[in-house]
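=== RUN LOG ===
request id: a7f3
mode: sequence -> structure
chains: 1
length: 277
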Amino acid sequence: MSKPQTLSIIGCGKVGQTLARLWVQHQTVQLLDILNTSITSGARAAAFAGAGRVASSYADLQAADIYLIAAPDDQIAACCDALASSGRLSAGSIVFHCSGALSSSILASASACGAAVASIHPIRSFAVPEKVAANFAGTYCGMEGDQAAVDVLAPIFAAIDAQTVAIKRESKVLYHAGAVFASNYLVTLLDTAVLTYGQAGIPQDIALKMMASLVRETSENVLQIGPEQALTGPIARGDIATVVKQYRAVNGWDKRYGRLYKHMGKLTAELARRKKK
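=== RESULT ===
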């Protein structure tokens, strides 16, 4: 049996801690160092992972085969620059990050040192690392980068039952925008529904209960049979008179939501046309 590759984590927050715990539990890699902004937070991360030495600085890092920069997006480039300046990288090194919005090109300073770079983004919310670690199996991860890095990292993620999906480096922003539509903007759209119910005199707590089965059934239908077949309602039925009445009512209440209703109506009409093909 070959010896596991060594890995160190820079900026080991919730994502880094979760992955570290999984890799340690599955004996996928040998976790060497954890470098955080403080010794205290580094110690907490190591305790959660169940392994790892707390490094005090970039100069204190041991040479590792793989480096994961799991810092916030706006710190990844600076962390990579500091790692590159530390002299720890060589032609055989691999450096990657887990940002959904940034591509592996943000790791240019590591590439300049001869390292292979990549980004692998687990499509999960990591608000509660304990829960994510307990049911991580089957998590999809968008992956792009240098082939040398991907060839090493893909099996490491497969070992913790992740499903890696290759994406284009130049399309990373669109990839992440898709996740924003599916998650963040869905929340905003549902908030708009609550506010609209409110204009009809329905309190928020009651509105949320009224929406519950509708939202759950709709999302399940989309995921199971696709958007075209899941579409119902006045536009799907061709009831344009109802759509116009609703638009006028919403626009009369708040023109911002009127514009949103109108634009969503146009997109929904396109979806309905796809359904009929």
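=== NOTES ===
Residues 68 and 233 are 47 Å apart (CA to CA).
The chain has a mean pLDDT of 96.
=== END ===
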